[in-house]
Write a structure and sequence with these properties.
Elements (H helix, E strand, L loop, with lengths): L9 H16 L3 H20 L5 H22 L1 E2 L4 E2 L1 H25 L4 H10 L4 H30 L8 H31 L21 H24 L1
Antiparallel strand pairs: 1-2
Length: about 240
């Protein structure tokens, strides 16, 4: 399929940015909780329609919760007295709600977009073409790292390796990281040679696709953006009325 037939993701990216900015700017825990509940409701609806895998979404949120755990350990605990801090707990709660909201919103809105589609959406919003090229290359590099790690782990399991708590596991894990870095460098050099052979340039690569006028975008995309803005406004109104 030609890249010209890929859907335009400008409004989805704009909706994700709206959720991210709103979640960052809002300080009320009640408002953030309402937004999180609405986001979970939207996730449940999307999963029921089978346009998103529950296992895939749970895996992504699980990875995010590892970062959330470190937030609680670093912020919510007063390590001088080893007791919970009231101000730290409130701040950790705000950060937890924000991180989960943004992770869910990005997964729902941008989860099915490839790196190239995301880069084209970034350029379509008026950002520099070099930034779009950088995003596409970064997403591609992350995919290469994930594929390399999977192959190395399969090779380790084929040799009957089992991770346990001990120095051997630490040594093997460090070797895995070293091999991952080496493979990533080799594959990045191959990718660079391939791009140069095709005359790649950050300044002349992205204009291949011309974005249509905003009026030509599907109504469903506009409805999605309007629903996101309405959900944020409703959450702020409900929280304000309770306050």
């Amino acid at each position: 399929m030609s890249h010209e037939h890929h859907p335009d993701g400008r409004l989805r990216l704009l909706a994700a940015l709206l959720v991210s900015v709103a979640s960052t700017a809002i300080t009320s825990i009640h408002t953030l909780t309402i937004i999180l509940l609405l986001t979970l409701l939207a996730s449940f609806f999307v999963i029921i329609r089978r346009t998103l895998s529950l296992r895939w979404l749970a895996k992504r949120i699980g990875v995010v919760n590892v970062f959330v755990l470190w937030i609680w350990l670093a912020v919510a605990i007063d390590w001088r007295s080893l007791t919970p801090s009231d101000s730290g707990t409130a701040l950790a709660t705000q950060m937890t709600l924000r991180v989960i909201i943004i992770a869910l919103a990005v997964s729902l809105l941008l989860g099915r977009m490839s790196g190239i589609d995301l880069a084209r959406a970034v350029v379509g919003l008026g950002l520099p073409q070099s930034l779009g090229a950088l995003i596409a290359l970064a997403v591609g590099s992350v995919a290469i790292l994930a594929d390399t790690r999977t192959r190395l782990e399969q090779a380790m399991r084929a040799r009957a390796y089992q991770s346990r708590f001990g120095w051997r596991t630490i040594r093997v894990s460090s070797q895995l990281v070293a091999w991952l870095i080496i493979h990533a460098l080799v594959r990045s050099e191959r990718s660079e040679l391939g791009l140069r052979a095709r005359g790649f340039s950050a300044m002349n690569y992205w204009p291949v696709r011309r974005h249509g006028h905003w009026n030509t975008l599907p109504r469903s995309e506009w409805l999605l953006l309007g629903s996101v803005a309405a959900a944020i406004a409703i959450a702020m109104m409900v929280s304000g009325s309770r306050g």
